[in-house]
Amino acid sequence: MTDKFTRSSEEVGKQFEEADRSHVLWLVAELEGLLVGSADFQRGRHAKNSHTAEFGMAVRQEYRGLGIGEAILRAGIEWCRSVGVRKIKLGVFVTNNRAIHLYSKLGFVEEARLRGEAIIGGTPVDEILMALWFQD
Ligand SMILES: CC(C)(COP(=O)(O)OP(=O)(O)OC[C@H]1O[C@@H](n2cnc3c(N)ncnc32)[C@H](O)[C@@H]1OP(=O)(O)O)[C@@H](O)C(=O)NCCC(=O)NCCS
Fold this sequence. Notes:
- The chain is of the alpha+beta class.
- It is about 25% helix and about 40% strand.
- It is built from three helices and six strands.
- A six-stranded mixed β-sheet has the order 1-2-3-4-6-5, with helices on one face.
- Strand 1 (about 25-30) and strand 2 form a beta hairpin.
- It is globular and about 40 Å long.
- The structure holds coenzyme A (COA).
- Coenzyme A (COA) binds near residues 57 and 97.
């Protein structure tokens, strides 16, 4: 939703420290000392939704298209399975072809569409809600 990362490293560090590790996974991708990507997976906190998790991710612009996003996402999916999550979900703008390609490749499918969730350059853009279910 934002094009800029505005939080300070202190704020992020505090968030890491305070995170409930049974429900939250933060992943970072590091290349030669540079943080090139990150993702956070949040598992549902209630009995009724603890089988679900949602995530957001981003890769530094110059490092996109190299497989880093796929590596991060596969690691997150593995964690979700290991803690008993059965459904992973996310929201993505319909214009975000790269992200949609990646999610579809890993088995996510569209479950719903929110009309005009964002206005980008004066044009309403739909958000697609996608999910990956584990059968076993
Ligand atoms: C979405 C994002 C996390 C993906 O990470 P990434 O490291 O670029 O992804 P990968 O390199 O692992 O995979 C990208 C795939 O998209 C494909 N791709 C690249 N450009 C594409 C395009 N314009 N249309 C369709 N597919 C495209 C690549 O070929 C690759 O697929 P392949 O492995 O089958 O060849 C990253 O691009 C990003 O940070 N984007 C901005 C933030 C964002 O959109 N976050 C997600 C919000 S839901």
